[in-house]
Each structure stands twice: as structure tokens, then as C-alpha cells.
Amino acid sequence: MVEDDVRMAAAIRRGLRYEGLIVDIVGDGEQALRAVGANDFDAIVLDVMMPGLDGFETCRRLRLDGIWVPVLMLTARDAVEDRVRGLDGGADDYLTKPFSLAELTARLRALARRGPVERPTVLEVGDLRLDPATREVWRGEAEINLSAREFALLETFMRRPSVVFTQTQLLESAWDLGYEQRSNVVEVYIRYLREKIDRPFDVHSIETVRGAGYRLRKDGGT
User: Fold this and answer.
1) Prior bond to 98 cis, omega within 30?
2) 197-220: per-residue pLDDT in tens?
3) Pick from 213, 188, 191: nearest CA to 204
4) How many CB atoms lie within 10 A of CB 91?
5) How far is CA 181 from the centre of its chain?
6) CB neighbours (10 Å) of residue 135?
């Protein structure tokens, strides 16, 4: 548990210990980074509002360091944009104060069952990188500007590289159900995407699988 309010931390630890959990407490983000780097934890309860590194930055640094312990953010800030920022920054769950200890315990059990599975906040395939939160794409150090449709298609490919997607699956991933489908719309947007992520860099990352659909090469075309 990362919590700078000593009384709050002690009360939560008593409750969690009563439920049979072993709880270590640190008071700020820097201590949290050191503790997680030196120990194996099943889950992290991370306060957002702390001196120095706040919870958002602490979680971001954990993920950048390749630490995938499930993180539950605990905070008095309940604005939607705060929850979105926390989840996009790598958190797995979000609970606002005041809260029920029973709910906190149940959420921790669920996170512990999930385990430290890699869930990168920025997708990388070869030298292609895509950030779903900021809607940015790079090939190496070069930033690439994509339309909303192009971005949605590329994100679909990058979440499952080497998987062949049919035209129907790609339509469902990038267009809403009310869209009046044209027979060649996917083909057109694949061509747009290739013109931006492949051709300027002299690579070939999106392959046509005849009679089946399209796939992104696992090496990103490099």
C-alpha cells in the first residue's frame, strides 16, 4: 500500500490483515518504486494525491520499468478524467474514497487472480509504436499523423500482430454499426495506412493474405 496519510494507511492495513492479507506500507511514490523493485507483491494499492511523485506518475514509471504487478488506484478524486488518466497510465482498477473495505478486499482478490500479466500502455511492434491514450504513432523517432479510422485500424493490427483479420472484423473495429458499408472501404483505408506507415520508410508491414484478409507482420516490417 502506498499512502501518505498514516492514520488511513493503518486503518486499511488492520482491515486487510483481518481478511488474511499481508500488507506493507510506504508513504510516497519514490519509496514505492524502491519497494516494488526489491520485493514480489500480488497487488499494489496506490494513493493518487501524494507529495513528490503522485500516483499517476508512480504507476507510469512502474510500467515503463516493466513491472506489471496489478495496481488499484485509491483516491478522493472521482472526476471521469482522473479515472481515465489513471487507467490509461497503466492502473488496473480505480476506487474512490470513501469506500467499503469489503469492496476493496474483493477487488484486490480479483487483481491477485489476474497476476502480473504484461499490459503495456504503449503498443510496440518492431519499430512501430502506438499510444492509445495520446493517439500518437511513431515509426522509430518519426511521428506519423493518422486519421481516426487509420489509427483504429493500426491499433487493431498492433494489438494482435501476425493475426489475419477479415474485412468484416476490420470494419467492426473501425466503423460504427450504423456505417453504410462500401465493399472496398477497408481496402481503401489499408492503402491510406500503407502510404503513411510503410512507404515513406521503405518497409512493408501490412500484408494481404489472399482470400482471407490482412495482417501486420510481427516484426513491424523492419
Assistant:
1) yes
2) 999 999 999 999 998 999 999 999
3) 191
4) 24
5) 30
6) 12
Q: Which residues contact 164 (CB under 8 A, 6 or more apart)?
A: 209, 212, 213, 214, 215
Phi first, then psi: what are they for 61, rounded to 5°? Answer: -70, -35
Q: Tell the residue number behind the cell numbers 481496402, with chain if given.
A: 187
What single-letter amino acid sits at 174? A
Query: 170 is written with which cell numbers?
Result: 476490420
User: Which tens digits make up the pLDDT trace of 37-53?
Assistant: 888 888 999 998 888 88
Residue 161 C-beta-side C-alpha neighbours within 13 Å: 15
β-strands 93-96, 71-75 pairing: parallel
Distances, alpha carbon 135 to alpha carbons 39, 123, 170, 172, 180, in Å: 34, 11, 19, 19, 25
- Has this prediction a pTM greater than 0.85? no
Residue 138 makes CB contacts below 8 A (sequence gap 6+) with 128, 129, 144
Instruction: Name the grid cell of 149.
Output: 479510422
Question: In a 3-state reduction of DSSP, which class is residue 137?
Answer: strand
Grid coordinates belonging to 194: 500503407
- Kindly state the cell numbers that stand for 44: 499494489
Q: Indicate the pairing of strand 71-75 with strand 44-47.
A: parallel
